[in-house]
Write a structure and sequence with these properties.
The chain is of the alpha/beta class and 253 residues long. The chain is built from 6 helices and 9 strands; from the N terminus they run αββαββαβααβββαβ.
């Protein structure tokens, strides 16, 4: 890879944010922070009087983090409870007489964040830290999108390798998968099992990268993809799934 292509790849991955554990350690799935942020912002837009701003998701406590059941994507966080740290704006001055107290506003937003993360994605969010940053002064500002780094999540071409193309076909047939993506290089990444006497990777490993429908729970789609790929491969490979985007789905159309 040339220096220019390497720089572009690094910038693209940085735009995706952290790779967050999706579901439990046995699920072998991850989702980009950017994809999770897009879902949380869409869902919390319905919380009256507030707008979610800058957001970060990380392990609540890195020390007791678990060990994933399959080899993770590069730089992915290990399985474990997550903490969401977010800024938000409120539509009225919370110190004004008769106005809903700020702790109550924050509690509504916190509940919406945890509900969306759990119900729509399958993230194990156990902590939400919120901070008010500003007031929303008019309707136009209230509807304006909040700046956030965005990764260039594009539709990946069909793999040229016959084996990878077959896996891609299996993945696309799973309900809830809308397209393949290639933010980490290619949509289907296959590592052959080593031949050493004490191999670090005892069997073939397959990693697939994809977008899921916003009408399906992301972790459920990832589980179905892993099951479908494992069955189609027939040599019981380990399978990891990386969700890099979540479409809006019919709820937001």
């Amino acid at each position: 890879m040339t220096a220019d292509r390497w720089t572009q790849a690094v910038r693209q991955q940085l735009g995706l944010g952290r790779l967050l554990p999706l579901g439990l350690a046995l699920d072998g799935a991850w989702i980009t922070e950017e994809a999770a942020w897009s879902v949380l912002r869409r869902e919390t837009a319905a919380v009256e009087g507030v707008r979610l701003g800058a957001l970060r998701i990380a392990l609540a406590d890195p020390d007791p983090a678990g060990t994933p059941a399959v080899p993770p994507p590069p730089s992915a966080l290990p399985p474990g409870p997550l903490r969401v740290t977010a800024e938000f704006r409120v539509s009225v001055d919370p110190t004004a007489p008769g106005v809903e107290p700020l702790p109550a506003v924050a509690a509504r937003l916190r509940l919406a964040v945890v509900s969306a993360a759990t119900r729509l994605l399958g993230l194990d969010v156990t902590e939400v830290d919120l901070r008010v940053t500003d007031l929303l002064e008019d309707e136009a500002e209230d509807e304006a999108p909040t700046a956030h780094p965005a990764g260039d999540v594009r539709t990946a071409p069909v793999p040229k390798d016959p084996g990878e193309a077959r896996i891609a076909s299996v993945v696309l047939a799973v309900p809830g998968v809308t397209r393949l993506t290639d933010s980490l290089g290619r949509p289907v990444h296959v590592e052959s099992a080593p031949t050493d006497a004490e191999p670090a990777l005892p069997r073939r490993h397959i990693r697939v990268e994809l977008e899921v429908s916003g009408d399906e729970r992301a972790v459920d789609v990832a589980r179905a993809v892993r099951a479908a790929v494992t069955e189609a491969a027939q040599d019981t490979p380990s399978v990891a799934v990386l969700v890099t985007a979540v479409s809006e789905g019919t709820r937001h159309r």
